[in-house]
């Protein structure tokens, strides 16, 4: 539905109608459109996060590719600007739940990837996994929200180079 009509026109009423249920059935499970969309886009995205390859540069490339795969889907591109605005305006508890359910596990896995690189001597111990993760995801989100091409391999390569330089000894 997001790909067909966009985020604004994707309403609880339309979701319920498409699912063949009433609005109360939808609200029993989700608190808002933003919560439904966030879970539809990210909870069902591949749970497998990139494996530790033993090479930081390859791992960073796998992470960039994984985030690009999630954000590069047409429904994500259609939804993300409105979703971010709605999550920002909604109750803090809901935004916290989004972070806890969908973002924190990926952030923790990224931290383990970086810790493995530190143990191998490929990354400096003082590099913050949170900051590096924010740089990775934030750069791609800005590109998505600004309508620029996420599929540009040169951009992905430049981002990997930047992240790698930021982390290495």
TrEMBL record:
All residue ranges annotated as the HTH tetR-type domain in the record: 1-48
Origin: domain of life: Bacteria
UniProt GO molecular function: DNA-binding transcription factor activity; transcription cis-regulatory region binding
Keywords annotated in UniProt: DNA-binding, Transcription, Transcription regulation
Taxonomic classification: Bacteria, Bacillati, Actinomycetota, Actinomycetes, Streptosporangiales
DNA-binding residues: 11-30
Keyword Secreted: no
One Pfam family matching this protein: TetR_C_11
Name of protein: TetR/AcrR family transcriptional regulator
Record PROSITE patterns: HTH_TETR_1, HTH_TETR_2
């Amino acid at each position: 539905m997001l790909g067909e009509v966009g985020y604004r026109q994707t309403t609880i009423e339309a979701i319920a109608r498409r699912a063949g249920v009433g609005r109360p059935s939808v609200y029993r499970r989700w608190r808002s459109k933003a919560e439904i969309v966030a879970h539809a886009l990210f909870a069902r995205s591949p749970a497998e996060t990139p494996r530790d390859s033993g090479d930081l540069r390859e791992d960073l490339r796998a992470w960039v590719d994984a985030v690009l795969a999630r954000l590069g889907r047409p429904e994500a591109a259609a939804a993300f600007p409105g979703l971010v605005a709605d999550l920002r305006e909604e109750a803090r508890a809901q935004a916290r739940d989004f972070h806890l359910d969908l973002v924190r596990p990926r952030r923790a896995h990224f931290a383990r990837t970086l810790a493995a690189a530190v143990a191998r001597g490929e990354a400096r111990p003082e590099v913050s996994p949170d900051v590096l993760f924010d740089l990775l995801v934030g750069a791609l989100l800005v590109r998505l929200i600004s309508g620029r091409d996420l599929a540009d391999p040169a951009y992905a390569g430049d981002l990997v180079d930047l992240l790698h330089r930021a982390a290495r000894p």
